């Protein structure tokens, strides 16, 4: 399976249904860490069955070139998820990027290096021209990850997504992959 190196012992690769157990455990382990940054989750979200079904759905979209669900693995332990979703082809060739890193691995530059690898993959192998991402207005760490990778802020969307149980403002960013 094709891997995108992030550092000497960390790489991104497309998730497989066999990763559902690892993904469920990673979400369980990071439940409190992610709570502030993600939608409210039903209990079933944290189960292997739910994660397997979700991976299956995203892989169906992947087979059509419309989504790319990556796991971030360090020494075969899943320590994050990076997803290219909402791919629009045709004249747009654009997609959205979402990501998170295990609470024990933040502050190590992993997210920045992983986003860099994703952008190379998107430009050179996925045929994308543009990637967009959004962050909560107070998520300065994620904003720095995007800025480190050449994203520019293109606006602020009031009450953009329902995160942590309430509609929250988000800063919007984009990276143009082909000049």
Automatic annotation (TrEMBL):
Pfam families: Acetyltransf_3. Residues 15-173 form the N-acetyltransferase domain. GO terms for molecular function: protein-N-terminal-alanine acetyltransferase activity. Keywords: Acyltransferase, Transferase. One of its GO terms (cellular component) is cytoplasm. Belongs to the acetyltransferase family. RimJ subfamily. This is N-acetyltransferase.
């Amino acid at each position: 399976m094709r891997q995108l190196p992030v550092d000497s012992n960390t790489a991104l690769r497309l998730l497989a249904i066999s990763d559902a157990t690892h993904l469920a455990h990673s979400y369980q382990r990071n439940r409190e860490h992610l709570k502030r940054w993600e939608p409210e989750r039903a209990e079933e979200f944290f189960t292997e069955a739910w994660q397997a079904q979700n991976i299956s759905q995203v892989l169906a979209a992947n087979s059509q070139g419309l989504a790319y669900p990556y796991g971030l693995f360090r020494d075969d332990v899943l320590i994050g998820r990076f997803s290219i979703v909402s791919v629009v082809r045709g004249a747009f060739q654009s997609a959205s990027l979402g990501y998170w890193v295990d609470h024990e691995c933040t502050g190590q530059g992993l997210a920045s290096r992983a986003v860099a690898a994703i952008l190379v993959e998107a430009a050179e192998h996925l045929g994308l021209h543009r990637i967009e991402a959004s962050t909560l207005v107070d998520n300065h760490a994620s904003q720095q990850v995007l800025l480190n990778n050449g994203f520019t802020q293109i606006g602020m969307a009031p009450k953009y997504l329902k995160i942590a149980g309430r509609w929250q403002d988000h800063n919007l960013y984009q990276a143009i992959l082909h000049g």
